[in-house]
Specification:
With 381 residues, this protein is of the alpha/beta class. It folds into two domains: 7-169, no CATH class; 193-209 and 244-376, Rossmann fold, CATH 3.40.50. Helix content is 48%, strand content 17%. It contains 15 helices and eight strands. It has helices at 13-22, 29-59, 70-73, 76-83, 94-107, 112-130, 150-169, 187-190, 212-215, 217-222, 229-237, 261-275, 280-283, 285-306, 330-340; strands at 6-10, 133-135, 139-141, 177-181, 197-202, 307-318, 345-360, 363-376. The strands form three sheets. The chain has a four-stranded mixed β-sheet with strand order 5-6-8-7. Strands 1-4 form a two-stranded parallel ribbon. The chain has a two-stranded antiparallel sheet with strand order 2-3. Strand 2 and strand 3 form a beta hairpin. The radius of gyration is 23 Å and the shape is globular. The two termini are 24 Å apart. Bound molecules: S-adenosylmethionine. S-adenosylmethionine is lined by residues 9-12, 15, 183-185, 188, 203-205, 212, 239-240.
Length: 381
């Protein structure tokens, strides 16, 4: 928006398609309006066909559940909502899911840019308006189930987004924004030209045993990115290790950071506490800590090659105490690793920006969130 060309990278395909849609300044508003009317028309027609099938069955005395309709059973997303248990556990009501699947199906044939724009409207409504889930900040199931007017909500959100885009248009934004699906601990960064980057802003995953794929699970499934357990496993593997649900036997990035005394000491303390636990997840905590910091180390190593001398970096990072209440000064350690990976990055400042508070079991915790600033040594040409 400030006219600076930029590249964004995330390993979550939902975040990528949403970011692409939000930064497509050149999309034609008239095309979107026309296509959204088409989508709503075809969705309404398909929904009427569903109602006909339902009424026919009910007139014969049979119960007709949305999840038994071909709209569900012929769609991979619908099948996975059933087989994964998301529907049974009430993440989303069957009728709301059916209407969402219908809109998604109508969007399928559209060219990528308008499809992304219209999908953005639907995905943005999924958790707050359509599903039975809410953020608090972790995703959880609400007490009351919803019967939302999915089509009406979708129409309203598309119009809202068009208004916002029209407003942004008045600023005549010309800068190019590229959004890449990729792993910032590996190939995602190697696809960016070396020495081209002048500034980086990021909020990397926190080491808080937070499964980032769970937070966007419904969006991932309904947009068709995750329609099998295998898809989900593959996706989790492409994420920075930050949760006991995405750390694997073959992971070996901790080897980069075991020489740092602060990382070693943390792993030792958490290993001692883990020995007394029987839970499988608790036992992977020491490995997870090593893999998280190993991943961040590798990230800074790769990033260093992309930065021009003198370029600035700003990262938001929270400290944690998610593993047996062991205090982890994540921001401080990341500052040390960024300098220690010898990629020419110098830590400028670690500034507290807010206090995060919560409860885990019966224990209250509070941790600071920090703004870390770095620079690549040398002067910007
Ligand atoms: C704390 S969120 C920040 C989201 C967003 N950048 C922001 O600032 O609002 C961390 C993000 O990192 C992404 N992520 C996790 N592992 C990644 C990896 N290896 N490469 C790139 N992105 C990753 C997650 O999908 C998630 O969107």
């Amino acid at each position: 928006m400030s006219g600076i060309p930029s590249i964004g990278i995330d390993s979550n395909p939902v975040c990528v398609s949403v970011s692409k849609a939000k930064t497509d300044w050149a999309i034609r508003l008239s095309t979107i309006k026309r296509l959204s009317d088409q989508v709503l028309c075809s969705t309404a027609r398909k929904y009427r066909n569903f109602i006909d099938r339902k009424e026919r069955q009910e007139s014969l005395g049979h119960e007709y559940l949305p999840q038994c309709d071909p709209i569900f059973t012929h769609s991979r997303a619908g099948q996975y909502l059933i087989s994964s248990g998301l529907l049974e556990r009430g993440w989303i009501g069957p009728s709301a899911a059916l209407k969402t699947l219908l809109i998604m199906e109508s969007l399928e044939g559209l060219p990528a840019r308008p499809r992304n724009f219209l999908q953005l409207a639907l995905l943005g409504l999924l958790v707050p308006e359509i599903s039975n889930m809410a953020y608090g900040p972790e995703i959880y199931k609400r007490r009351h189930q919803r019967e939302p007017d999915v089509f009406g909500l979708f129409r309203g959100r598309v119009l809202e987004n068009l208004e916002k885009l029209e407003h942004l248009r008045s600023r005549r934004i010309k800068a190019k924004t590229t959004v890449l699906l990729g792993d910032s601990v590996g190939k995602g960064l190697t696809s960016v030209d070396m020495g081209m980057v002048r500034a980086v802003i990021s909020s990397p995953p926190y080491l808080s045993d937070h499964d980032y794929t769970r937070q966007t699970r419904l969006e991932l499934v309904l947009s068709g990115h995750v329609t099998s357990n295998e898809d989900l496993r593959r996706l989790k593997k492409s994420f920075l290790r930050s949760s006991s649900k995405n750390v694997y036997k073959e992971d070996q990035l901790s080897r980069h950071v075991l020489r740092f005394p602060e990382v070693r000491a943390l792993i030792d303390v958490i290993s001692e506490k883990a020995v007394q636990r029987t839970s499988g997840f608790a036992r992977v905590y020491p490995k997870l800590v090593g893999e998280y910091f190993g991943g961040m180390y590798r990230h800074f190593e790769l990033l260093g090659e992309l930065l021009r001398p003198g370029s600035k970096i700003a990262y938001i990072i929270g400290d944690q105490s998610s593993f047996f209440a062991t205090r982890i000064p994540t921001a401080q350690i990341i500052g040390t690793l960024a300098e220690g990976c010898r990629s020419g990055i110098r830590c400028l400042d670690i500034e507290p920006i807010r206090e995060l508070r919560g409860t885990r079991g019966r224990v209250n915790w509070s941790n600071k969130e920090w703004l870390l600033t770095f620079e690549k040594k040398g002067s910007l040409s």
